[in-house]
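To illustrate the input format used throughout this study, we show a single complete record. The first block contains the structure-token representation of the backbone; no residue identities are included at this stage. The design step must infer an amino acid for every position from geometry alone.
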């Protein structure tokens, strides 16, 4: 048991870190939240004594419903599609590479180094390299000519064709559908684990949301007085390809470490019971890799939601089809001097990232307890 003196010494040791963290992290976050509720930037933004007045949530209303902020709403759509594709493909490619490397008899160290190397590069370097490779008349499109085929014509970064188009004025309806899908998977998992209490409240929430969607109430609520189509732009494929190339080695390392910790006794027992190698992989290895998958999803999702430097380097900040909220925040703040609007975008990104991080931390703390 620690003495009183040891406790005081420990507290004084970490006190400077707590003070600095409170000032330069949480203090700046609080200041950004406050500034997002002002009109800072509409007057002389860079003057010594700017006239700043409170406008409440007007900046947020303009971002989500204002006529001049169509780009920000498309940025949110781009961020959603990019996050889903980036996280999914990075996990799949990383798991595939880890499985292959784990089965190698020789050359494991060489291939592990090769696959990990892209992660050592900065996003700016990655963006510059892939910008050259994804040129419409060179790079990847030129590869078919090496075997006598015509060159490719896919516009990796400059396409303006959209798929999965939806109307932003009905975004509440689509958001509710997403929650229903997530609840359905969560409800199924709780039912399989026989968690009666969670099954009850999840089933109740699922039923209520399903009734709301079926009644058509949300489709009659329109955020805009006119239709505003948004969707997945084909130009995002180039950004996804570059990001997956860089981060798949990271997930490979995580999965490879996880595969090496699977007890050999479990695999041998499965073989004795007549399980094939695929069945052992499916029912022994993959379930034990679930904690690694969850951690990887949180880390990769965090990277995807706030991505900036890769987009800046690979397609420039002025390229609308591949823009993300962080890019628009930069343009609003440092080019347009709309400092309050830039703060509002920063707060929105902070809230979105929190929806991913906080549940993970809560679950982790519960497991530790």
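Output of the design step:
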């Amino acid at each position: 048991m620690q003495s009183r003196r040891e406790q005081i010494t420990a507290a004084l040791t970490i006190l400077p870190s707590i003070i600095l963290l409170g000032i330069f992290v949480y203090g700046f976050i609080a200041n950004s939240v406050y500034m997002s509720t002002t009109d800072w930037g509409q007057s002389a933004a860079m003057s010594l004594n700017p006239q700043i007045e409170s406008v409440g949530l007007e900046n947020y209303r303009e971002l989500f419903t204002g006529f001049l902020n169509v780009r920000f709403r498309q940025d949110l759509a781009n961020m959603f599609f990019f996050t889903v594709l980036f996280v999914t493909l990075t996990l799949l490619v990383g798991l595939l590479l880890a499985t292959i490397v784990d089965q190698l008899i020789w050359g494991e160290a060489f291939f592990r180094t090769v696959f990990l190397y892209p992660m050592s590069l900065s996003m700016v370097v990655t963006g510059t390299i892939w910008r050259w490779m994804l040129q419409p008349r060179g790079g990847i499109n030129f590869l078919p000519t090496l075997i006598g085929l015509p060159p490719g014509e896919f516009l990796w970064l400059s396409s303006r064709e959209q798929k999965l188009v939806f109307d932003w004025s009905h975004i509440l309806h689509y958001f509710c559908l997403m929650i229903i899908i997530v609840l359905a998977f969560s409800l199924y998992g709780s039912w399989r684990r026989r968690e009666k209490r969670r099954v009850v409240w999840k089933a109740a929430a699922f039923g209520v949301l399903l009734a709301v969607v079926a009644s058509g109430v949300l489709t009659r609520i329109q955020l805009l007085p006119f239709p505003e189509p948004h969707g997945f732009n084909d130009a995002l494929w180039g950004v996804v390809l570059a990001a997956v190339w860089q981060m798949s080695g990271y997930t490979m390392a995580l999965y490879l470490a996880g595969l090496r910790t699977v007890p050999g006794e479990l695999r041998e027992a499965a073989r004795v019971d007549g399980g094939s190698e695929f069945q052992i992989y499916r029912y022994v290895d993959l379930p034990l890799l679930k904690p690694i998958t969850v951690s990887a999803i949180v880390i990769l999702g965090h990277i995807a939601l706030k991505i900036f430097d890769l987009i800046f380097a690979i397609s420039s900040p002025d390229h609308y089809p591949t823009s993300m909220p962080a890019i628009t925040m930069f343009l609003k703040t440092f080019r347009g001097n709309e400092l309050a609007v830039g703060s509002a975008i920063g707060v929105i990104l902070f809230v979105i990232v929190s929806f991913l991080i906080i549940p993970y931390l809560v679950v982790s703390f519960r497991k530790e307890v």
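Structural context for interpreting the output: The chain has two domains: 36-161+234-368, 162-230. The radius of gyration is 25 Å.
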